[in-house]
Amino acid sequence: MFGNKNDVPLDRDASSRFLPWLIAMMVYLATMSLIIAITMNKLANRWDQGLSSSLTIQIPAEPSAEKRRTLEKQLKTFITKIENLDNISRVEQLNDTELNKLMEPWLGKDILLHDLPIPYLISIELDSSSAKTIDEIKLILAQDIPNASVDDHQRWLGNLLGLTKIIQIIALLVVILVGGAAALMVILVTRMGLAIHRQVVELFHHMGAHDSYIASRFQFHALKLSIVGGLSGLLLAGITVASFSSLLGQANSAILPTLTFTSGEWGLLLLMPLSASLIAMMTARLTVLRSLALMP
């Protein structure tokens, strides 16, 4: 009698209809939150590596042709001095074509740079981030071109990295909250099943069926439903990621993140439905055992 897997007909309950959908929604939210956390971490590292070792020097444009020629000579001298420093990877003065590309999003394609007071821009890349090298560059700049300004990107980069950390923390909190909500939902559904099948459960209990046996009926039922829901949620998350990845690929922007993952990160994402199934199974088991312990 106790060996029949249908001795507690849980598949007929209303919970069997909506629990997989709820689990799917939970897994989808948790997976997307984890993807956001992973992506923001990669994006922050890319920004940090790309900008923490780079400088941009801006020199105001001169109105007269004679002063421009003098300034250009000063720039050549300055660039030569910088190239001779240690820890310098590249020094480049942006030409008109590159300046056009920078101005294009705001001023359009047909820009006449000679009609605009466009400053001179020099891009410097370091082999590694070094406060000493930056101080040396600033000292040389102050001696050769006093009216120039240096942007080491640290101020806005720090704010940007701080924002990404906050987003990561929020995303991970969402994963934790979703896990808690899933456990609470399984508790409610299990109690509903116990209430519906109370007479059958009490009969088994009084006939000497072990509590673990009765609990196993509920835990494997919850496991089956959560596997269906978890895989559905993971599939929906995969479709969402593929759609966003296609859109980001079309944008072709260095600022935007790329939705590519390592094998370890894929493994972490695949843990979402597995974790949901384990949470559902163990929660259902503990809920039933606790309820049976209160029976006379």
TrEMBL record:
Keyword flag Transmembrane helix: yes
Top-level taxon: Bacteria
GO cellular component: cell division site; membrane
Keywords: Membrane, Transmembrane, Transmembrane helix
A GO BP annotation: cell division
Bilayer-spanning residue ranges: 21-40, 166-189, 225-248, 268-288
Protein's UniProt name: Cell division protein
Natural source organism: Kiloniella spongiae
UniProt keyword annotation of Isomerase present: no
Lineage of the organism: Bacteria, Pseudomonadati, Pseudomonadota, Alphaproteobacteria, Rhodospirillales
InterPro entries: FtsX (IPR004513)
